[in-house]
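Kindly draft a polypeptide, keeping tokens residue-aligned:

***
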Amino acid sequence: MLLMLLLAVVVLAPGCKDDDDDKTPSYHMTIAGKSYEMSQAVLENYGQFSGTGFNFDLLLLSPGLVLHEVNGEIDSISGIGHAISFEIFTATEEMLSSGVYTYDANGTENPGTFDEGSAIVDFDTAIEDGTYYEINSGKLTVEKSGNTYTFSFDGTATNNVKVTAYYKGVPKIYDYSDDWKSAKVSRRIYW
């Protein structure tokens, strides 16, 4: 009897589904109920434009997308993958502050807002094609502890598509604040 029980466990156990198989990846973007892993974060400091806030762009990328640098600046992106980005305005010049940033359709560039957000799924950089979503509402929560940031987003995109994102880690930071003022920045990454 013990041998039959052991044989049943050995034969049936490989067919059991691990509960972890259904979990959302730890660092993810979810669009319309489907989750995509995010493996890297980038913050770009562009300084102050015309509003009272200082502009930081946040970019979360999935595995498969690779940033290329030239002279310490982002030059291009290659590969196939998924991404989400935000143009954020904060009260501090040096670094993106902890806080809640709310979508601002009027583009006031006031601290505590973001006025542009987009996500792209299955983006093939070689042919510049993928499924694009324009974020049109939501809140981005930023928490900073030392060099580690936690980014959490909950909102919607065009056609009322639900979009969420979560990432915790140390982002790659680029400071273009002086370059922007002198018009040296030649290319920002947009989809």
